[in-house]
Amino acid sequence: MTTTEKNKFIYNFKEGNRTLKNVLGGKGANLAEMTNLGLNIPQGFTITTETCLNYFIKPEKTMEELKPIVLQHIEELENITDKKFGDNKNPLLVSVRSGAPMSMPGMMDTVLNLGLNDQSVVGVATQTENPRFAYDSYRRFIQMFGDVVMGISDEKFERILNKHKRLKGRSAQDTDLEVSDLQKIITEYKALYEKEIGNQFPQDPIKQLFLSIEAVFKSWNNRRAITYRKINDIPDFGTAVNIQTMVFGNKGWNSATGVAFSRDPSTGEKKPFGEYLTNAQGEDVVAGIRTPKKLKEMKKEFPEIYDQLLNTLEELEKHYRDMQDIEFTIEDGQLFILQTRNGKRTPSAGVKIAVDMVKEGLVNKEEAIMSIDPKKISKLMFKSIDENSIIRVLARGINASPGAVSGIAIFDADTAEELANQGQKEIILIRPQTKPDDIHGLYASSGVLTQFGGKTSHAAVVARGMGKPAVVGAQDIEIDEENKEFRVGDTIVQEGEMITIDGTTGKIIEGKVPLVEPEIKGEFLELLRMADDIKRLGVRANADTPEDAQKALEFGADGIGLCRTEHMFMNPERLPVVQAMIMSRTKEERQEALDKLLPMQRGDFYEIFKIMEGKPVTIRLLDPPLHEFLPELALVMLESQELKMVNALSRSLLNITPLDKEITKKNKVISLIRSLSEENPMMGLRGCRLGIVWPEINEMQVKAIFQAACDLKKEGIEVIPEVMIPLIGMFSELQYVKSDLMKIAKETILRYGVDLDFKFGTMIEIPRAALTADEIAMEAEFFSFGTNDLTQMTYGFSRDDAESKFLPIYLNKEILKENPFDTIDQDGVGKLMRMAIKLGKGTRPELKCGICGEHGGEPNSIEFSHQIGLDYVSCSPFRIPVARIAAAHAVIKEKNNK
Amino acid sequence: MTTTEKNKFIYNFKEGNRTLKNVLGGKGANLAEMTNLGLNIPQGFTITTETCLNYFIKPEKTMEELKPIVLQHIEELENITDKKFGDNKNPLLVSVRSGAPMSMPGMMDTVLNLGLNDQSVVGVATQTENPRFAYDSYRRFIQMFGDVVMGISDEKFERILNKHKRLKGRSAQDTDLEVSDLQKIITEYKALYEKEIGNQFPQDPIKQLFLSIEAVFKSWNNRRAITYRKINDIPDFGTAVNIQTMVFGNKGWNSATGVAFSRDPSTGEKKPFGEYLTNAQGEDVVAGIRTPKKLKEMKKEFPEIYDQLLNTLEELEKHYRDMQDIEFTIEDGQLFILQTRNGKRTPSAGVKIAVDMVKEGLVNKEEAIMSIDPKKISKLMFKSIDENSIIRVLARGINASPGAVSGIAIFDADTAEELANQGQKEIILIRPQTKPDDIHGLYASSGVLTQFGGKTSHAAVVARGMGKPAVVGAQDIEIDEENKEFRVGDTIVQEGEMITIDGTTGKIIEGKVPLVEPEIKGEFLELLRMADDIKRLGVRANADTPEDAQKALEFGADGIGLCRTEHMFMNPERLPVVQAMIMSRTKEERQEALDKLLPMQRGDFYEIFKIMEGKPVTIRLLDPPLHEFLPELALVMLESQELKMVNALSRSLLNITPLDKEITKKNKVISLIRSLSEENPMMGLRGCRLGIVWPEINEMQVKAIFQAACDLKKEGIEVIPEVMIPLIGMFSELQYVKSDLMKIAKETILRYGVDLDFKFGTMIEIPRAALTADEIAMEAEFFSFGTNDLTQMTYGFSRDDAESKFLPIYLNKEILKENPFDTIDQDGVGKLMRMAIKLGKGTRPELKCGICGEHGGEPNSIEFSHQIGLDYVSCSPFRIPVARIAAAHAVIKEKNNK
User: What is the ipTM of this complex?
Assistant: First the structure.
């Protein structure tokens, strides 16, 4: 070799190793690594990424310098394989593949069988005793080369192929084509090539090779690849090119091809798993035309190779310290390993493998944790659709509350309740959208499906609160309430028909399908404990009911980070009292209703505190605008209009007006709803603003909290209440609201004569609160970032409207890389959070900071929460395991980056 | 005096001067100043603020030290006046007043006639030959002393007084009480005093005096005073106490009392103006029981004193360099000046006086400008209610669009239009709220009054755009649409009755009242030119129509800072085309409607550019959500329901369904409105988001802008278009929208073959835009702060909802000092603005920054805009003079602070 190491253009597989990924690309480095492990790899060589970069600066000079070195390496391959490039009898065939340091779509993928031409195809036919295979390979080579190297539209090749298939009969397959057909196709392919390119299809393998190498180089800078790099912040390090000898598993009955896993990818069990086909090529296994054999059958058929394969799997697993998925080929009784990679696995298998490997001493705990993608863990927490079942997806909506469930389609809340009372347990409530009036129907159903609304719509919020699956905003379904059915495309689903919804994925599925139950035990539990040992962040739960609190505890919550009191108001027994409270015209009337609510709320808090014994429980005071508890205006107006028309009719026919009283009542309700209705309720009279306008509501809630806490204290049970005042934007608001409530808290404690630790704090969910956090921390003992609202206001996005109207377009056009309601926007919202923490801790160094938006259960956001120094994240009970693992990831990544 | 200067407890009036405000308080310093000018001031002395502070540390010691010094000063007063404290014949009477360095409500105000007791009252009666005056003074002294010094509830005194008044007859006044009545009252007052305090009312004037001094000290630390200081950031510098000889203008016909101004406070003319009463006391002038005489009558009645008074006025005006308002008393032919202060004046008088004084060389231009409160200038810009007229205010609403106007009450848009077509020019449209459907009614009316909505409601925005007065959100009026009337309290206003609304103050007034026309000329013009010479900020106009542009130019705009294109869409001729555009189901249909709008928009821009020749015109692309252009959902639903019921009736009676087609049509509209309707439209599909979802709308607008600009360029007229993209929150949004529009702009310019300067920029109105302004400035050539929306999102306040539901409560409870929609919130919103300017200019130093929210016309916000380095403010044409003066203020204040 004439070049220095710095300018080394080519590494053969023996020269490289996996640490040279930046030089050889991922694929090249891996092939080199396996070669050096002593595995039988079809030999070849890799052109470095640096060569690619040189090519872009001086293309001609680079190719000129490259040529002799490539030819020298081809010669080496000829010597190793005892074959000859372009030979008519025993030709050396190679594959050419790109291989960047990071996996990248949009680049040239693969050219197989390079080296075939009109002569050598005859040689292969003779040698393999399989002329069909030889001509089919040649046909594929011309097509691949024409398409990926020369840029001829693949459709044009397919048109020729299809024409010949049609000649064989109406439903003919590729495999029905005979040698003579293939030869005709090859002739037409070559004619197409000449017409498109202006030259004949190159018969010289050397020419084929260099055209392919240049095509790989160029593909690095095609538009799709550039865009992909830009979006994913991948540097411009160029691509390597791998040239590798072809081997064939279809050379006869002493040849085979297959795939194998070092452990069972479905269960994680430590036993090899795989399938193979004798006298076949790789794509036959994938295509599923012949039924492959189980790996254990190989023990009889190829006993020596079977042992060799098992040893290889074990060796590779030990070497890569992860479960391996390999492709292999047996050519004439000789085993070749074509590829190894970390094997894909089901989430539960992943957990088992990680924990087993720690026990086996193969990896340490941190590595085991890092091998688990926290996002996938969530799949273990909900009922899911059995992956092996065949389903018919009718439509997709927004995945608003996770879990899959089947039930009969019911189109109104009353029927749902009635059927539930009759014992029907499987009900899916289907509504254009839900309102507080539908709450009894939601209670009665197993899941909810709506045509409108987003992740914060009433249906979504209530369903998540109840832990029931929900698919919302499924705009493709058209609900006909009158006829109690919905239409989607040509399908009509009528009342009583069974459907399945998957709130994890947003799918709406025909009929009842098999579901898989979630469970936390065994290795899963062990893994979570490992994560707990590593993580710094506390993980709390968003839990509104004793049932939620119980679940949260089971799933390992360190406390409750968000207990939303409004969900307690939505309870169907209480809603009328809440409505009476809202409708009251005087302070006295309001107080009367509140007096009824007090013992109910106290009871809720008592139960939750008791379950969470000794752990902090953050209770948010009433937050939503009051009209959320009232029926919809248009509905009441229509009802009133109906009454009026009946009245008018009665007057004209009978000269009586029997509905006067009813109408007056309706008019009162209409006028109240109108007076409470708002242009933009998200930014209207809610949160702490309610407490300023109607202090009695907050006062009742704080009484309930402290009475419950004091009761438990008297029983000797430890309680740590944290009162959270929502929607604070100014110091003066917090001061005003808190001073009143603090008095009630202290009076209650004094009256009970107990010793109780408690905190008053605030949500940080208004941009202004973050901007003036130094002032707010003068009154707040903790900050809980309400990142849902903070994201809404920082972006000026109303989530419901954005997700149904324009966010999909933003994501599609890549104006947004990710939905900021799923993953925290670190540049904007995150900047405000950092600012708030810095300002807040400047005023009060011991300030406790957490996050209680939905981001609290999302791995990237959890990592960010760790980075900016939050004390805890809070998420729905079912996300707690995800959060525990993500929190551990954050620590390990931080350590690894140091 | 035994104390050192440092511990000087007391200054007599001759010792002080106006620079000692911090020591003597405002009042004391002013009395000293006048004494030293040689004016005849009832002599007295001032206890220093420091003494007050000492009192709070060591009350007893301070009083002990203070007593001999006070007595020494009292002795001096006795010598000067030849009266004696507590004397039975010729008693020295004094007043005791607090006087802090800054005017402060909540503190003890005044005790008059101190020194009276059961004996000396007889002396006064004899001396003044007016026993009624003497006993009334004593009665008042006991009441004042009891109330403000000893804290006895004033109500208790009033109860006694009222009882005796009732005994004189049903409608008896104070003045009906005779000496014998007053003597009875005094006896009962003293009894009340003894009962409440436990001691007799003090007869010893020395005791009266020291109790009063201590009461003044204590009032500095009463709760209201502390709160006021806290809110207004006033330091705790203590209050001074002024003790001054009483003089009486009611000693006989050689005595008098009055007020005088050095110039006419109504017109500003340079001639003294005043009123006086002979043999009267100050409160008689104020009470208006006797008709006072004009100042010029004094020339005959008291010729010497008249000359003396005129000289005094001139001297004081020269000394204070401002028009003075004095109180004077003539006691036995001797003139005493009791008080001087800068005189209150009408806005137009203020302007004339300021400009005249510059011409007279009395003040320089900067002082003249600073003497004008910019807020008051706005009153010169609109029709206003004649201050001299007697009006009956029916109710108050939100002052949404300034100016006063009278007209007949009309309750629907159709009638308004019909009457206008018949020639009726005075119409007030009265609606619960307006919608685009009412637009023809708004055009036909002179003003609009709504029951609901805030300053950004449809009615408010459209009225401001049209320059018509509007009062909105007048919740006290109850509109009965059916009977075409509104009720407020017991008053009913029916269709056709005349009312007046004042959009400047929010008043709703019965009948037609005299109005005053605005004008800019003479001294007003001169003053504005002075301001222009001083100011650094550019002042642009928010102008949407050629008429607005014309006005803006007349009022001195440097350009247009905000031209809202949506108001052009609201034009009743265009609305149907806009609606067709929105309703279109295909891109082609939409394009067809847009093609119709293009020439209309081009025409608008052509006219505006032409008027603003050579000045920059910033055009904002379509901003509001599209459903703002559609009718209200509930309305269409009710209409549809009616049709259905008629249909159902027809079917049951006649077996026909004549309205099927109509119903289908309505249903389509309903379904469209539903699909466009949003939970929180403020944060929904609007602004640049519209341009991303339906690019054709923006494209049409940019075509119209550049075609109009190029047309004018070809005619040799200079045009500077600035295209403003609203609601940007991310760099990627701006990049996406701009790249498309930039292409259209360049293509158009190329096609016309002209040379055109233009800019593309963005509103900064989303918090995230401010947070990431460094990125956004990469694409934006200018930033225009949309502080209305920025305030909404930074606070999480929907303005409409906040102003009608809770902001009044916030202001009332002093949680907010000012409405952040009126005056920029410097701590929150302002922080974001500073951040955005710093980040933006970091990326692009030549970045032009302005403000185009309503704050652009508000003086405090203009000063802030100057401070943070904005290049211009933009406001409604009528606010331009205000802005020009406020901008000059900002420069002068900055200079004075250096």
Answer: 0.79
